[in-house]
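Encode chain A's predicted structure.
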Amino acid sequence: MKTHHSTVRLLLLVFSLALVGFSCKKSPNTIGNNLIDGGNYIGIYYTDTLPILCHSVMDSIGTKNVSTVLLGSMKDPVFGTTTAGFYTQFHLSSINHKYGSNPILDSLVLQLYVGGFYGDTTTLQTLHVYEMTDTISTHEQYYCYSDVPVGAVDHANGYQCHFRPHTSGYIITNDTIERPIIRIPLSQELGNFIMNIDSSAYKEPDLFKQEFPGLYVTAETVSQDGGIGYINLTNNTFSQLQLYYHEAETPNKTLRYDFYVTQTDVYFNRYIHDYTQGDPDFVDQVVNGNESLGQETLYVQAMGGVKTILQIPDIDHWRDTLQEGHIVINEAKLVIPAHAMIGDSSLFKTPTNYVLVGLNQDGTTYLLPDYLEGTSYWGGTYSESAKSVTFRISEYFADMVRGVKPNLGLSFGINGAAYNAMRWIIAGPQAEQSDKLHLEVTYSIVGD
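Encoded structure for chain A:
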């Protein structure tokens, strides 16, 4: 009897598995259709031909106390000339410091740790250093275009150097600096001024900053090539303002006092762009405002430079022609490919990460709901193999179709634009190449 029941159960199991295997061969588009009336099947549709209007414009960005300060000048064949500098306060390395009864200045040196470089490292750079004549505040916001009054004297006297971020072993007296640095000798005038500040100002960092507001460090505009150095200003081991001196009684005994830049001090990047020296089509679009050129070529640049505005006008048409609630957005992917521009220099490496945000009526921006799903879903990273950047904007697109938010467009730019020097050229939706900017939408229409 037990054998008979076991045989029956075995036959039923084999039959069930065969039935499951047969069922799995059905097309995913037809599974369950026998449960729905003939006119109510859920169809899956795809389009990548939605019109997209886009153009590039000049940007601005806050640069206060960012992770890296930029220094240098470069002439880009497409984007024109950009010069990067920074304003900074200095912090006492120790309080109540006294230089002695009769100190004599030997030298004042601004030492900067070069953490990287963008552009041509072989170009000779000319650097200038000016003393700030007004204080900067922790309560103020500072932007890439902000200015602070400075004196007329260039305390670096046009110091010339090459940025060599991959070199090390710089020997100073008996010390070897195992990091790439530049050392800018500053004037005796400035060194004596700092050394002769009343000793009471050395009791507190804020008192010292009132007497010595800080420095503006910048570069002279290059006529060709060039590049921008990435300075680790708050790395107090290697970036310092160093004052060397000795006491009159002991001329052979060199002493040193250092000033640092810390996160409690205020510093910010200052960028100067001259786009009129760029490619004629770039100038016509970005400077002169010829938006139609954006359908072929688009641009993004960090340093508060250039961003791209995109709008999908047919979203409103979808809302008007399809009954609300009867369309389901399965996926929407914005694909942004590189432009195959002839003559684009290999010196200007493609940025890795990008940002895409929504635009409000007042020009402010907001994070798209898809961004909150995480990087693996959202995207925004450049693919070297595909030569493009992809964003999933499914929730955003669905919100636009439903009219949850007004369709005011998107802003696309480079991530970390306040503290890197990169730029990128994009194939617009009507570019003369096979891969161009487009939106891929997969959607379903549910019948009545």
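The longest helix spans residues 2-23.
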